[in-house]
Amino acid sequence: MLTSMRLLPGLLRAACLILLFASPSHAQETDVKISKEQLEALQQKAAEVERLQEQLNQAQRELQALKATNAVAVPVVRDSDNRVVPLPLAVLQAMTNQPPTPPLVQIPPVTPDTVINVQDLLTYFETDPAAANARFKNQTFSIRGIATDFRKPMFLSTYDVNFRLPGHELHVYCLFRPPDEFNRVYISRSGEEIIGHTYNAKTVFARAGAELTIRGYCEGVKDKAVRMGGCQYLVSPSSLSVLPSPK
Asked: What pLDDT score was predicted for residue 154?
């Protein structure tokens, strides 16, 4: 097939010659003549061009059909204001690789050192709210997952980091109060970063699509969210992105 495609330009030129020599006006203006064998050879080449062109058209149709078959609809998640939240690709990848959620009765007692996957935590609260409340509410522990979006209320120093998953009615909401040395906290223009400013530098606290481990106090479910208060990132200072503050 590839060899035939490489011959296509030459065959097209041959087809043009057929049309040229077959033209009555050309026969009147020139004395160039070709033999019957040459004419038949050119006609065969023209037929080959048509055959290759049809193969190319068929291949293009098959490619379009294949793309349509393999197209994957990206799940849509919305926030409490019914706004669409762009879902980072890392969320879908993490869900694909996530092992099945273990039964709640198999989970050891919760301690400050406990780390619960976001998908597991949401599953527990959605399938058995009473048992999940008994196990997690009013407890301090850590959650781990892919951050999807941030919210920064006006006139408040606090901000929240959210973890949303397609197919789940609830999401995890983590409330943060920045350290005192940060005199300004805001969301980047792209909406993908939460940034804090000190007097001489700015720090990227979190990025959408990044895996975070956050420790907080579970307040239970409110407004379709498993709420975590008094949150802090479980990261070393060296892992934070610190950039010079603009002059």
From this structure: 85
**Strand, helix or coil for residue 140:** strand
Q: Which amino acid is at 165?
A: L
Burial 32-50 (b: 16+ CB within 10 A, else e): eeeeeeeeeebeebbebbe
Report DSSP letters for 76-140, one per residue: -EE-TT-PEEP--HHHHHHHHHPPPPPPGGGSPPP-TT-EEEHHHHHHHHHH-HHHHHHHHTT-E
Q: What domain range is 59 assigned to?
A: 2-70
Name the band, by pLDDT with cuts 50, 70 and 90, for residue 63: low
Q: What is the rounded distance in angstroms from the CA atom of residue 47 to the CA atom of residue 56?
A: 14
Integer Cα distance of 247 and 200 in angstroms: 9
Joined tokens for residue 247: 């002059």
CA proximity to 175, closest of 163, 161, 194 = 161
pLDDT for the residue 142? 96
pLDDT digits (tens, 9 = 90+) for 219-232: 999 999 999 999 99
Number of domain units in the chain: 2
Question: Is 172 found in the same domain as 104?
Answer: yes
Pairing of strands 159-163, 149-151: antiparallel
Q: Other CB atoms closer than 10 Å to residue 82's CB: what's the count?
A: 6
pLDDT tens-digit series, residues 6-46:
444 554 455 555 545 555 444 444 556 778 777 777 777 78
